[in-house]
Amino acid sequence: MTKKNTKQEIYNELKTNELILFCIDFLAKDTGKCSFQDLLKESFTLRPDIFRFSNIPKWPDSRKIDRPLRTLRKRKLITGNPQTFFSLTKAGKVMAKEIAKTFRQRKLEL
Fold it and tell me: Could you say which DSSP state residue 47 is in?
């Protein structure tokens, strides 16, 4: 018998950079771009344990998302900056699709 995973359990298995790519892909579906504020909100909603202030756990900490964004830009998986918008590059889109496929392939409890 296989164990069913909740969506939260699968989100918890993602590395920070993978989660950010997944969020940018999700948020940029219609327009192709994602604002920093929306990205921070979505990331914090999915993984508050990672993207929160250590002394105020109910609030997102934008510093926690800054370094991963710079890494993703350096790896040429995203373009943009916090003052404008973020978009996935072709390589970033491929990686985001692979991450999304993980969710479709696993049985989820809703």
Answer: -
Q: Where are the domains of the chain?
A: 9-105
Torsion angle, alpha carbons of 66, 68, 71, 73, to 10: -70
**CATH T-level fold of 9-105:** Arc Repressor Mutant, subunit A (1.10.10)
Whether the model clears a pTM of 0.85, i.e. scores above it, the answer is no
The band of 4, judged by pLDDT with boundaries at 50, 70 and 90, is very low
Sign of CA dihedral 18, 74, 78, 92: negative
**Cα distance between residue 110 and residue 108, in whole Å:** 6
